């Protein structure tokens, strides 16, 4: 009852036996990502607008700093007189 069952015609091991080849891994299809042209355009326009706003803030900050230095030097000269 608990004895193993052996094959009737066992095949002798070959001298050139190779390890069994693993089957190729199953490739799952990549999900199709459909990005509309409008979405790409919206992202590009948003990036351009944000970059322009950042540049405007930087230019404004530099001009305010220059104006502050000029006013400070003018007021300092006026107090020395």
Structure write-up:
The chain is an all-alpha fold and 81 residues long. The protein has one helix at 37-80. It has a domain at 39-81. It is built from one helix and no strands. The termini are far apart.
In short:
The protein is built from 1 helix and no strands.
Overall shape: rod-shaped
The helix/strand order is H
Beta percentage is under 5%
Number of strands: 0
Low-confidence segments, given as residue ranges, are none
Average pLDDT, to the nearest integer?
Answer: 83
What is the number of helical segments per DSSP (H or I, 4+ residues)?
Answer: 1
Q: Roughly how much helix do the residues carry, as a percent range? A: 40-55%
Distance between the termini: 119 Å
Q: Describe the main β-sheet briefly.
A: none
- Radius of gyration (CA) equals 39 Å
Name the quaternary structure: single chain
Structural class, by secondary structure, is mainly alpha
């Amino acid at each position: 009852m608990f004895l193993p069952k052996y094959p009737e015609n066992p095949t002798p091991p070959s001298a050139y036996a190779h390890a069994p080849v693993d089957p190729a891994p199953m490739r799952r299809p990549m999900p199709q990502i459909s990005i509309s042209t409008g979405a790409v355009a919206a992202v590009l326009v948003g990036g351009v607008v944000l970059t322009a706003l950042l540049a405007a803030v930087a230019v404004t900050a530099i001009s305010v700093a220059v104006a502050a230095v000029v006013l400070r030097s003018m007021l300092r000269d006026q107090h020395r007189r």
